[in-house]
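=== RUN LOG ===
request id: a7f3
mode: sequence -> structure
chains: 1
length: 172
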Amino acid sequence: MGFLRRADGPAGTRYRMREKIFAIGDDVWIETEDGESAFKVNGKALRIRQTFILESASGDELFKIQEKKLHIRDTMEVERDGQTVAKIKKALITPLRDRFAIEVEGGAELGAKGNIVDHEYEIERDGKKVATVSKRWLRIRDTYGIEIAPGENDALILAATVCIDEMSGRRD
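=== RESULT ===
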């Protein structure tokens, strides 16, 4: 049973990723629900700031994910071919739920809200759910699932999820 599945539409694509294991130099595979390697998060060693490369299963670089220093609040950027395609920012005030803003260049802003630390949250655009992140449907320890609605840019949503995972693990 899918998170986004409705009687009137197709289910989204599901991925699974290990949580809180990102460190400089780590490589992590994002797998499909069937256990096939779909994307690789390549942690770049010997960098001053956190840098990850999201690669296709064949090793092609899709996005560079970098921490941005000197910002008032935590910010990471997702780049393609040297151009920023998205900025992920941690909300300044989070009274009841954690929140992140995902500013997509040339597109509508996305928002992530829910229990980010426990990997139980949704990503929305204009009030419409585009992805659900949850540990509930996986029994594998330290792993969470990401279900992305049909027609979305899976790689970009997964890159944003990597940013959120990285920023939510920091203790300010």
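=== NOTES ===
The chain has a mean pLDDT of 81.
The longest strand covers residues 83-90.
=== END ===
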